[in-house]
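ok here's the first one, seq then struct tokens
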Amino acid sequence: MDTKSGLNAIRYVGIAEAAGKVRHAQRIMVVGCSGGGKSTLSQKVARRFGLAYISIDRDVVWLPGWKQRGRDEQRRRIEELIGQERWIMDGTNPSTFDIRVPRSDIVIWVRMPRRVCVWGILSRWARYIGRTRPEMAPGCPERVSWEFFRFVWTFERRFAWRIVEGLEAHAGGKPVLMLKSRAEMRDLLDLLGAGA
């Protein structure tokens, strides 16, 4: 895969190389837009390799009733969680890349087309309507608001650059896998023996 030239280049790797890295990784970071499949991928990899599954939504950001923890408390919680030896962390939040990326062995960027992400949030809402999904904090039943829909629809244009900047600043040559389709995600899971 192409690697950006320059001092702070992101070292993108292909699926086969990434699968080899994931097999031996102690700490994996999974980022991308809501609805793209970050949580599903993370949970499958966690089960396959016995890694602790950390959801930023569930374990860091949200409190019951869709109330957010303060930024300082969120950062403290992330600092505690990344101190563990073996984990896979699902969640984007570029403002904490400075502490999460250096601690990770590999970063997986689930960069699906927006139509896939929109379908993901709508189908998730239909599946969990009135209930809290496993990767969300207790007391936060599934919902889709216009604001959230707009966030997903404009994510690539408005937020992807922040992921790129964060990786350029903090990855330091760590491997970064970018998954751009469900087929690529299936290929990775098949290579890892984590497809089911």
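and now the second one, same deal
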Amino acid sequence: MKMNLLPAIRLTIATLVLFCVVYPAVVWGIAQLAPNNGKGEVITVGGKRYYANVGQQFTEDRYFNSRPSAVDYNAAGSAGSNKGPSNPDYLQSVQTRLDTFLLHNPGVQKNDVPVELVTASGSGLDPDISEQGARVQAARIAKVRGISETAVKELIAKHTEGPLLGLFGPAHINVLKLNLALDQLK
């Protein structure tokens, strides 16, 4: 037993040092090379600070809607709802979101609403929507703000980011950045 116990204790101490000291130090060091020292992308407008990499809630008709959040946009509690697609509560939530979206966007057909506008992401904090998710809201925003729908669509095109390295994931738009740019339109 003594022969097995000593190597087990040494292995435990070695893995504790590796995974509790060395690995976190390496990750922290790499984060220091990133913009804003790994603390996320901070945007300051009018003295207010916003984190562009965390979803924000926009409910006014003059703004693009964000993706719904299962955690009410609380960055301290990132999580999904963990309800499956056949769960009655989940289906009711999605239907309520869809009905609300259609009420605020007259003229949009149910089939034209992208899924990300009525379903929460796995983290509940997704800051992005698809280009289609923004375009389907363009008419409402143009009408409320009294600007042309073409100007809104040009703004959408300007803020569309392509896939990572041109290969990974779909094109997307950061809703916070898009709404801040919308406020700067004259």
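notes on #2: The radius of gyration is 22 Å. The first helix runs from residue 2 to 31.
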